[in-house]
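FW: tagging you since you asked about this chain on Friday. Here's the raw sequence from the shared folder, copied in full. Didn't touch anything.
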Amino acid sequence: MNKLIIASVAVALFASCASSYNVTGSSSVSALDGSKLYLKALKSGQIRNIDSCDVVHGEFHFAGLLDSVRMANLYMDDESIMPVVLEEGDILVKIGPAGPSVGGTPLNDSLYHFIDRHNQLINQMNELGHKQNQMILEGIDEQTIAEQLDAEAAKITADEDELVTKFIELNFDNVLGPGVFMMITSQYRYPILTPQIEYIMSKATKAFKEDPYVKEYYRIAQENEARMTGMKDPVPVQPAQPVQPVDTASTQPQRPLTNVPQP
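HL: got it, structure written out here
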């Protein structure tokens, strides 16, 4: 009897100490209605299911205990829809044809403010192709077009690099820093070192460097750097990537950070 009482008390204490997440979502995308959604996160190098629910009449809901704040992704089947920070509080998710958004808690508000600004820069970069066509129709010579658009593309790229780098620096010691680092590195076929990554790692705190994804990525990237310097084949291995890729290095048309199925 005493053992049962002790066990019951231990469970009650654990439940009282553990925080919980509460995700309430709505969708105006008809393709999602009747679908099953999953919350997935990286754990021990693998993407694992945390929770699941059905979309019923455009509404869905996740809830559960949370041992620590973590970055997760919302999936429909095997397709990643959007990142979500699982933290204590009421998390509000909205999915529409124009794109998804998450808010209601501090880290999610911060993440999606960053995502909105990043997507604005991506859209500006993608608009350069339309601008080029318009300038050609106006009869502007190719050299002038190339010089102007190259300068605009360089400015957008610099703004994007600054946005990403500063955001990661400001969030070295919470899940947003490693989460966005994962986004920007997932564009590469294998882990590499870029000036931006080298700068970030030179400024990084111990907590950031010890994040499992960051630590493994940087280790393999350093190995690949040594191999490439020695004219050897790079290691074609990359840590698991449960978040939507972001193409921050290419001047080709890019996708926003989140990708929602259209109706």
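FW: Residues 5-16, 238-255, 258-263 have pLDDT under 50 and may be disordered.
HL: agreed, and Residues 4 and 10 are 10 Å apart (CA to CA).
FW: great, closing this out.
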